[in-house]
Write a structure and sequence with these properties.
Oligomer: single chain
Largest sheet: 2 strands, parallel
Number of strands: 2
Mean pLDDT: 86
Structural class: mainly alpha
Order of helices and strands: EHEHHH
Helix content: 40-55%
Radius of gyration: 13 Å
Strand order of the largest sheet: 1-2
Amino acid sequence: MPIKEIKESALFIADAHYPNYGDEFVEILKKIKSEEIKIPQLFLMGDIFDLLFGYNEYIKSFSQEAIELLKELSKTL
C-alpha cells in the first residue's frame, strides 16, 4: 500500500474527548462539509478513531450524526 502524503492545511483531531465535546466536533464537521473550513485531508486519532470502529457501543449509540457526516466527508477528502 502506498504511503499517502500529508497535504498542507490537513487537519488532525486527536483526543477530542468525545462525547464531552460532541456538539463542537459535529459543528466542525458541518463547517468542513459546507467548506466554511477548507481542508484537503482530515486525520482522526484517539477517541474519535475508536468511535468509528465501534470500540465503545455507549458512545456509538448517540453518535449517528457525527458518523454520517464522516461518511459523507470521506467521499470528498
